[in-house]
Amino acid sequence: MAEMVCAGFMETRAADEEIQKICDEVKCQVEEKRNEAYAVFNAVQYKSQVLQGVNYVIKVHVGGCSYLDLRVWKKLTCHGGEAIVTGMEDHHDKDPIQPFQCDHTLFFCCSLSPSCCLMTCAKRKKMQ
């Protein structure tokens, strides 16, 4: 079992059934944001960070030699458990996944550390 790092991302792991389920849940969000439909949308690997829910960076194979790195925030079950895409990057192949900037603010929201995102920007946006 991987060691838990408080507010930091855990080591990269191979995607499992749970991660694929999250990808299936957010596929429509990705297709809408990218204005593209994907026949292939398979989770390959991921990193996770437990912080007010779980932040994931997930590498997704979308067909051929194409991959997307998704940043997904999965709310706590007591808050509905919804998965929300908070960022994505393309032009990735099998390179190692890394946490990346948030699409909402273009910097790491409310954080002095690039490994810590409190999702404050997404919460603010939802309240507007």
From TrEMBL:
GO MF annotation: an example: cysteine-type endopeptidase inhibitor activity
Gene3D superfamilies on file: 3.10.450.10
InterPro entries in UniProt: Cystatin_dom, Cystatin_sf, Prot_inh_stefin
GO cellular component: cytosol
SUPFAM superfamilies: Cystatin/monellin
Keyword annotations from UniProtKB, A to Z: Cytoplasm, Immunity, Protease inhibitor, Thiol protease inhibitor
GO biological process: cellular response to bacterial lipoprotein; immune system process
Compartments where found: Cytoplasm
Record Pfam families: Cystatin (PF00031)
Domain (Cystatin) ranges: 4-103
Family: Belongs to the cystatin family.
PANTHER family recorded: CYSTATIN 14A, TANDEM DUPLICATE 1-RELATED, CYSTATIN FAMILY MEMBER
Protein name: Cystatin-B
Organism: Astatotilapia calliptera
